[in-house]
Design brief:
By secondary structure, the protein is mainly α. The protein contains 3 helices and 2 strands. The N and C termini lie far apart (112 Å).
C-alpha cells in the first residue's frame, strides 16, 4: 500500500509539473504573440509618422512654421547634398542627371529616357594647360647651376 501511495504522489507531482510547464508554455506563446502585435503596430505608427512628415514637408516646405522650419531646412540641405553626390557619381560614369526627374542619362542625350524632358547638352570645354612664366633672370640662374654641376667632377665624400 505504501508503494502505491508513493507512486500516486509521484504521478501527482509529475502531473502538476507537466501542467505547470504547459501553462508556462501557453503564457510564453501568448506573450510572444502579443509582443509581435505590439511591434507590428509600432511599425504602422512609425510609417504613419513618416508619411505625415513627408506630407507636411511637401505642403509647407515654402513656409514652414516653427519648430518645423529647422527640420524643413535640414531636409532641403540634405536633398541638395544628395543631388550633388549623385551628379559626381554620374560624372565618374560619364553620365548626367536629368534636371526634371533625377534619372541618369548618357552624356550626349538631349532627352531623358525616363521622363522625356529636354536637357541641354553641356559643351565640352577644353582642358586648360597650366603654364608657368619664367623670367630671363631665372633662366640664367638655372642654366648657370646646370653648367656648374656638369663641370664639377664627382668627389668622394669624406666620412
Amino acid at each position: 500500500m505504501e508503494v502505491k501511495k508513493m507512486f500516486e504522489r509521484a504521478g501527482d507531482s509529475v502531473s502538476k509539473f507537466a501542467k505547470s510547464v504547459g501553462d508556462n508554455s501557453k503564457k510564453a506563446a501568448t506573450k510572444m504573440k502579443l509582443n509581435r502585435n505590439i511591434h507590428d503596430l509600432e511599425k504602422v505608427k512609425e510609417t504613419a509618422y513618416t508619411e505625415m512628415g513627408k506630407q507636411y514637408f511637401l505642403s509647407h516646405a515654402d513656409a514652414a512654421e516653427e519648430p518645423y522650419a529647422e527640420w524643413v531646412q535640414k531636409i532641403v540641405e540634405a536633398d541638395q547634398q544628395i543631388a550633388a553626390f549623385k551628379k559626381e557619381i554620374a560624372a565618374l560614369d560619364d553620365l548626367r542627371i536629368c534636371s526634371a526627374c533625377g534619372a541618369e542619362m548618357a552624356e550626349g542625350q538631349k532627352f531623358c529616357p525616363n521622363c522625356g524632358t529636354k536637357n541641354e547638352v553641356p559643351e565640352k570645354q577644353p582642358e586648360e594647360t597650366k603654364t608657368e612664366s619664367v623670367s630671363e633672370e631665372e633662366v640664367e640662374i638655372l642654366s648657370t647651376e646646370e653648367t656648374k654641376t656638369e663641370d664639377t667632377p664627382d668627389q668622394p665624400s669624406e666620412s
